[in-house]
Amino acid sequence: MLKPIRQSKMNPLFAAMLAFALVPDAPGTELYVNEVLKDDPRLSKPARVAVDFVRDIKPIFRDACFKCHGPDKDQGGFSLATKARAMEGGDEGAGILSGNSVASSLVHRIAAMDEDTAMPPEGERLSSEQVGLIRAWIDQGAVWPASADETDPRATKAASHWSFKPLGRPEVPGRSDAWITSPIDAFILTQLDEAKLRPAPPATKEALLRRVSFDLTGLPPSPEDMAAFAGDTRTDAFATVVDRLLASPAYGERWARHWLDVVRYADSGGYETDIFYEQAWRYRDYVIRSFNEDKPYDRFLMEQVAGDELWPGQADMDDAVAVWTLGEWPNALDDYPDMLEYVRRTDQVSTLSEATLGLTIGCANCHNHKYDPITQSDYFGMEAIFAASETWNRNTGAKAWGKGERTAYRALRHAEKPLPIHLLTRGELTQPTRLISPALPAFLPGGGALPIGPDEAKQRRAQLARWLVAPQNPLPARVMANRIWQWHFGQALASTPNDLGTQGVPPSHPELLDWLASELRENGWSMKNLHRRILLSSTYQQSAIRDSNAIAVDPQNRWLAGFPRRRLEAEEVWDHLHMVAGTLDTKSFGQPFVPKLSPEELHGMYDLENKLELKWPVTPEQNRRAIYILNRRSFRFPFFEAFDPPNTATSCPSRQTTTVPAQALTLLNNRIVGEQARAMAGRLAIGAGNRESCVQRAWLLAYSRAANEGELRLALEFIARAEAAHLNSGATDARTAALVEFCIGVMNTTEFIYTN
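^ thats the sequence. predicted structure below, dont judge the formating
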């Protein structure tokens, strides 16, 4: 590229600066620039003295440059706060070439050789003596002692930030209170005392059983389970229930759904093509099995990051790492493979950092992170780790590439040759600067460049995996403990679970969070152990009914003077409807099933007239658990849409909980609800002999409790009126028609879609 620049008829100064910007490393570039600019009158002559950085140069930088390029500013990606950042350069490449001031773009800017790019702004320009000092300093080797570096306020803030501190086991508050049955309660009660609040009374047995059943399995308790728990007077009756639910296959299906939200799982690629990943379900099944087996969380993470490198040939490892092949990617970029690979790596780094570290490393894709001490180099160092891997088709053994490969049995493997990764100006693939080596975030313990060896490319993800769960890394245990608490209580202790950085919301109970994280790590990373710790606490077993003082003092219930009420998630509503109807198919694992859609719902499906059966191929199976429903990115299942399903484009740390008319309209008018109401009516008619027993059975199935006298009276009156109306209209089976209307009414209540 240098030759045509030199031979062009453009302004010599502009040509020289263009050559420096575009081909700084090309042979002859510096010589060419020197030839053009060495005698330019606008360049002040270098000072004829020995220049000391601290005495002569740093004051100039501080007074004239730090406003835009200082410790907490890096306009244009360029900072003069530290030697490393200054020599790294900015969006337009290196600004300081040690030993060559003529070719250093910093000198061109401060000498105002081009008014459009001159720095500092008009009225604040450097004197010719100051420019001469900087030229002399660069020509003399740009010596910059480490002791002269300015402190990055982001690094200073990070050093004292709670989530970056080493993880220790906080001392449990020493208290004497009959309410305390676990260390968790001692931490909670300490905060309640400060707020002058008291815990709510214990929940009733019925409410507690419904709560923990939905919590651990996503399903309501059966009437038989309710009767058994009500009659169990042993002190460990609830602990027995917890152990039974944790041992149920339904536990893994419920808790896998939480993790799938975090890693943005779906069965298709999104965008206009929405390519079907027909083997994605194998990763989903891997996650379900991992939760049911109580796979240690550190092993669970390591398998997904680098199972193929750490345990090659072992079952499930290719399915585990397939998570990095299932993102939302614009597959129409098939004709631009470099861009497609870049999009993939961007998604991989962002997802991994948010899911496992609780950090928004992806923010440093186009500039140094504005709040956390994460540089662009850190970001692209993480990209370089993934650049040694490629997506391949396990069916054919070939690299998964091209439009016909999008339905391949996808996994990750080592590339024959790692892709070279450059730091990109403003994150633009077309504007590469210097090469970046694989590295971990430098500001975290154990971070920095990965060791380089003969087989290093085959161990990049393995090194990342080991570092993630190393004892000195405080983040993964804190992140997962925070998530587990959130998934039990509906709100995390640190309410921004994907961002525990300096801009994230601090935890409401920091000592409790660290205690939970250390409990997770010190007990073999067992998630089931942490479940038991939480569920057997008095905090978890409180009533959801708070007194007026607690509501006034703590309207958001951050201090937990009562259990937070929780609306069922979209998948739980589906499962609950089928469970009360007696139609739920509990078959586990396998390919996704595809429910029928109404003609109105089909109008929301793109490509309606073209190969619709390939986009939404209805299956014979219709009543399995919701986790097994086909999950397309560009067409969300309409029934779920009313109940705030997750965003699958990126990591989803928490779902919204809205209250909108569409929820009531869905439960009243949706075809699926009508079908389940008819099935429930048939179940009641067979299992109960009279109207009263039908009502009581319905209450047990739908609300996990008995109907009180007032509810029983109103329900019986409703059924009687409905049956009479159907008789008057000439219905052939008025009793069944009345029961169907009654069941639809039961399903259309707040209590049906809330835990207690």
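The two ends are 70 Å apart (CA to CA).
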